[in-house]
Amino acid sequence: MTDTKKIEKILISVEKPARYTGGELNSYTKDKKDINLRFLFAFPDVYEIGMSHLGMHILYNMLNEEEDVWCERVFAPWTDMEEELRNKDLELFAIESWDSIKDFDIIGFTLQYEMSYTNILNMLNLGKIPIKSKDRNDSDPLIIAGGPCSYNPEPLHEFIDLFVIGEGEEVTIEISNLLKSMKKNGSYTKDKFLKEASKIEGIYIPSFYDEKYKENGLISERVAIEDDVKSIIKKRIIKDLNNSFYPHKTIVPYIETVHDRVIVEIFRGCTRGCRFCQAGMIYRPVREKDKETIIKQGQALLENTGHEEISLSSLSSGDYSDIDSLVIELLDRYEKDNINVALPSLRMDSLSDELINRIQSVRKSSITFAPEAGTQRMRDIINKNISEEEITGKLKELFDLGWSSVKLYFMIGLPGEEKDDVLGIKELAYKIKDLFFKRPKEEIRGNFKLTTSVSCFVPKAFTPFQWEAQNDIEEFYDKINLLKNNIKDKKITYNYHEPERSYLEGVFARGDRKLSKVLETAWKKGCKFDGWDDKFKFNEWLEAFSDTNIDPDFYTVRKRDFDEILPWDFIDSGVKKEFLIKEKMKSKNEDVTSDCKILCHNCGVNTGIMKGSCYESNS
Amino acid sequence: MKVIVKYKKVGRLKFISHLDTIRLLQRAIRRAGIKILYSQGYNPHPKFSFAMPLSLGLETYGDYIEIELEDSENPNTIKERLNKVLPEYFQVVDTKESENSKTLAARLKYVLYKIDLELENTDLDEFNSIKDKFFKEEQIVERIKIKKRRKKVKRFDGRKFIEKIEVVDFKNNNATLKVYGIFSNEGAIKMEELVELLKTLTLNIKDYKIVREDMIFE
């Protein structure tokens, strides 16, 4: 039974209690006696971050539109709340019903970044649910997971009962229908359910397989230990986004979240083919929504939430085929109502002059460019097809129109990087500064501000760089300090990401089954909220590696051979390995690959998963 | 046209801070399609003002805001439209037109609270004598505020901010009080602070619950 009084008592003593209270507009409350399935959507980070995640809003509303399903939410409690829960011996509760997370039929974690893994274990433990799959029985909730990190699920194999690979809309309903029917006719046992579920496309049950290793730690083979299970798991995709479920209302949080706005997804996938980018590979092929659908969905969401901002979401919004007319139509509709149109992930070089003029009349925020690398040579290696002339040309135009604040994003530690490439970051920043000031005096307006942010490259599964060695921490610091010592200009702010975390992320991004025990050990040592600067405990992590006799360097600084069995090889992302190898070889020769809107490069997604050409012009 | 909106905020919504309440109302007004005047400037914001903020954790059955509408409208329909888009724990109780040029905060005289006390070995006579003592001598409140990581202590006579305390009900060690708090340009006392003062006057309080009931304007 939920002890509302006890919960209220602790809520009054924690920071931002509205993180845990629920009851927001457009959230669902249902009568438990009409419910056949209780689903809990779990986000392993704080409320403010989780509530800004589009996928959660889609799945939450989709499940709740099923009459006999009640989907609720839970987020990682902040450390003050955790302390209160543990002190008062209360279980972590769902924010709608305040019932313990243990009372649910199924808990679905979303895996957005590796640094949230310890929070998953911590949340299960706070719900008094055994963290390991093998220790949970038929009366415990099923623990499932999906999201981008499930493309390399093995580090979590001991904890998660079932992984969803790929896009979740259809498969989530299939899972919930299966579970509902088994619970209804009394045939449910955890084992039977997992066996049935494993037949659904896109579902991976880690306990049905075993991974065997050679003496040197490499995988020798993967074997099925259960009869009749697939050896390859194919990702799921939604073929037609226009007719796929999209919420017409979303929950309106009471407290400020990372993004307080309406989000309309305009397409999935990306045609650019940047070689470092996992999203650009795993979300293939590109599928666009019609302009009419986008406008209609945006309008409904604005009406049902009262938000003051509408944002278009995709991996690279400027690549939407009708972006100009879409944005102009949105501006025409909403400018007069004080509703702001936000365009994140928009490549400024893709904007037409008309659009730039229109955006400038609304709000002159800062301009963001992500050249990712400082030299053309390096940008060719990573296939970031943007030239210095394109950046400076567009910036000159924007400066003339009155913009004065620029943000640049770079990575260091990219394959084949040399000292000059790192210094190229500084060169580019200085060139942009000169571009601003070396104009006629009367044209210089505003207060020039340039922010250069540098992050440490983490090679990811399913990219052409999946075989690459990551820089070690020392190499990263050398490069960081090289820039720190060279960027000496009051107008240029230099930020960098700490390499320790990128190193750890690198371990898990390409990790295997052996990492489950490291994760468990680190969590037992108190690691949680590893993505938060003030909570990250690198020393404890290093201890966890040494306690379990696992060398983290094996996963990061080691270069892989093409014929090595990779821990994620059993997943079919639609993109063929031959394509990734071809891209890797081209990158070595500093050859670029064009946008796949221009020419199909046969990555394989059109023949394997999409069945048909991605673009009519390519057929 | 100015409209005064009286609302209640109860249940789970008591955990919503004052700033979040402002945003909640702004959005509700927008969803209800009520056109209100916006301030001029770079970042225009809707024109509305609160009578007095409410501390986090308290329920209220009578808080007030004043909004300025673009066009004249029947205040009753404003209430209906807002209630349709507001969550069940946050509802408009009453609306009326206002022609007063002074802000709500400037006109606010008393804030009414209901306090339920769970006492130990205390009868009404004893309670009344403690209550009388309260008004007879100075009642020092020490309020600690942390501003920019520096502790600041504000000391004041809590008595100044209490007009009267009525005993509504008293039996078996359970007392229900109606407290008239004074809201002046010097501020106000928090009811938790009043409870603490009563405790130092040797009132044996085991548990208590505070609810804001209403406000009285000039």
Chart the SSEs and their pairings.
The complex is a heterodimer of chains A (619) and B (218).
Chain A: H1 4-11, H2 18-21, E1 37-43, H3 47-50, H4 54-64, E2 69-75, H5 79-87, E3 106-110, H6 117-126, E4 142-146, E5 162-164, H7 169-184, H8 190-197, E6 203-204, E7 209-213, E8 219-224, E9 233-234, E10 262-265, E11 267-268, H9 278-282, E12 287-288, H10 291-305, E13 309-313, H11 323-334, E14 340-342, H12 353-362, E15 367-372, H13 376-381, H14 388-400, E16 405-412, H15 419-437, E17 449-456, H16 473-486, E18 492-496, H17 499-509, H18 515-524, H19 538-547, E19 571-572, H20 577-588, H21 605-608
Parallel strand pairs in A: 1-2, 1-3, 3-4, 4-5, 9-19, 10-13, 13-14, 15-16, 16-17, 17-18
Antiparallel strand pairs in A: 5-6, 7-8, 11-12
Chain B: E1 2-9, H1 18-31, E2 48-50, E3 59-68, H2 75-85, E4 90-98, H3 104-107, E5 108-119, H4 124-136, E6 140-147, E7 150-157, E8 162-171, E9 174-182, H5 191-200, E10 205-217
Parallel strand pairs in B: 3-10
Antiparallel strand pairs in B: 1-3, 1-4, 2-3, 5-9, 5-10, 6-7, 8-9
Report a brief summary of the structure:
The complex is a heterodimer of chains A (619) and B (218). Chain A is built from 21 helices and 19 strands. In chain A, the strands form 6 sheets. Chain A has a 6-stranded mixed beta sheet, with helices on one face.
Could you explain the architecture of this structure?
The complex is a heterodimer of chains A (619) and B (218). Chain A has 619 residues and is an alpha/beta fold. Chain A has four domains: 4-234, Rossmann fold, CATH 3.40.50; 261-363, Transcription Regulator spoIIAA (2-Layer Sandwich), CATH 3.30.750; 365-507 and 558-619, Transcription Regulator spoIIAA (2-Layer Sandwich); 515-549, no CATH class. Chain A has helices spanning 4-11, 18-21, 47-50, 54-64, 79-87, 117-126, 169-184, 190-197, 278-282, 291-305, 323-334, 353-362, 376-381, 388-400, 419-437, 473-486, 499-509, 515-524, 538-547, 577-588, 605-608, and strands at residues 37-43, 69-75, 106-110, 142-146, 162-164, 203-204, 209-213, 219-224, 233-234, 262-265, 267-268, 287-288, 309-313, 340-342, 367-372, 405-412, 449-456, 492-496, 571-572. In chain A, the strands form six sheets. Chain A has a six-stranded mixed sheet with strand order 2-1-3-4-5-6, covered by helices on one side. Chain A has a four-stranded parallel sheet with strand order 15-16-17-18. Chain A is globular, with a radius of gyration of 25 Å. Chain B is of the alpha+beta class and 218 residues long. Chain B has two domains: 2-99, Pseudouridine synthase I, catalytic domain, N-terminal subdomain (Alpha-Beta Plaits, 2-Layer Sandwich), CATH 3.30.70; 109-217, 2-Layer Sandwich (Alpha-Beta Plaits), CATH 3.30.70. Chain B contains five helices and ten strands, in the order E-H-E-E-H-E-H-E-H-E-E-E-E-H-E. Chain B has helices at residues 18-31, 75-85, 104-107, 124-136, 191-200, and strands spanning 2-9, 48-50, 59-68, 90-98, 108-119, 140-147, 150-157, 162-171, 174-182, 205-217. In chain B, a hairpin with an 8-residue loop joins strand 2 (48-50) and strand 3 (59-68). In chain B, 25% of the residues are buried. The chains are: A alpha/beta (619), B alpha+beta (218).
